[in-house]
Amino acid sequence: EPKFSLEVLPLWPRRSVTCEWKDSAPYQRLTAGNPQIELCPHDADPYFIIHMEVHGVADPLISFSVVANDDKMGTALPCDVSDITNTTADEGSAGFNLTSAKLPEGRTLAKSAYIRHTCVTLELRLPKEVRLKSYVIVPYLQPAGTRGTCVLTVSNKSGGFAVRNLL
After folding, report:
1. End-to-end CA, the chain
2. How big is the CA angle at 20 (ends 148 and 60), to the nearest 5 degrees?
3. What is the pLDDT of residues 108-151, one digit of tens each?
4. Euclidean distance between CA atoms 68 and 49, whole angstroms
5. pLDDT tens, residue by residue, 79-99
6. Number of Cβ atoms within 10 Å of the Cβ of 75
7. DSSP 79-124
8. Pairing state of beta strands 108-111 and 119-125?
9. Which tens digit of pLDDT belongs to each residue from 58-72?
10. Cα–Cα distance between 33 and 15 in angstroms, integer?
């Protein structure tokens, strides 16, 4: 009797976008330094795999968050501190002062692992109770002030979704 068996997994439809950090922002801050990618589900399939891969950075610390966008399709989360009231002054690890907005309270659906590596993957199941038309994926690259490129790949079983860069 075999001790293990191999099973062929189906290849799910996927879509990728490339974004860039010209000057990465502090972790979990909304600034123009962190890209934003919109995920728009078109059908009822709630299960997604999100994979982020970073290029051009030696020894990066990476992570990403998925935030409900309150059906504001095509609109990035506010980065300008004059747009929102929940702001803090943050001392970035690159030694500069940066005023930035925090992630919206209560709207963060999932966070990937915060890892010292070039790639990270997250399994995301969207809530059944409230299905929105727009979610925003915010990738983070540390240390703050770093330049790099990110390829974000989203897949699900049905392929009924779109992804696009917002920032």
Report:
1. 54
2. 30
3. 899 999 999 999 999 999 988 778 999 999 999 998 889 999 99
4. 17
5. 754 433 333 444 333 333 334
6. 14
7. -STTT-S-EEEEE-TTS-EEEEEEPPTT-EEEE---EESSEEEEEE
8. unpaired
9. 999 999 999 998 878
10. 23
C-alpha distances (whole Å) from 150 to each of 30, 57, 98 are 17, 10, 22
Of the candidates 50, 29, 167, which has an alpha carbon nearest to the alpha carbon of residue 113?
50
Beta strands 108-111; 29-30: pairing state: unpaired
Task: Determine the length of the chain.
Answer: 167
Extract the tokens encoding 97: 């002062």
Distance CA 26, CA 23 (A): 10
DSSP string, 114-159: -EESSEEEEEEE--SSS--S-EEEEEEEESTT--EEEEEEEE-SS-
Give the phi and the psi of residue 58 in degrees, each rounded to 5: -85, 125
Instruction: Please report, as a single letter, which amino acid is at residue 140.
Output: Y
Q: How far apart are CA 108 and CA 95, in angstroms?
A: 28
Q: What is the pLDDT of residue 9?
A: 65
Question: What was the pLDDT predicted at 100?
Answer: 52
| The pair of three-digit structure tokens given for residue 138, joined into one six-digit string | 């915010």
CA 59 to chain centre: 19
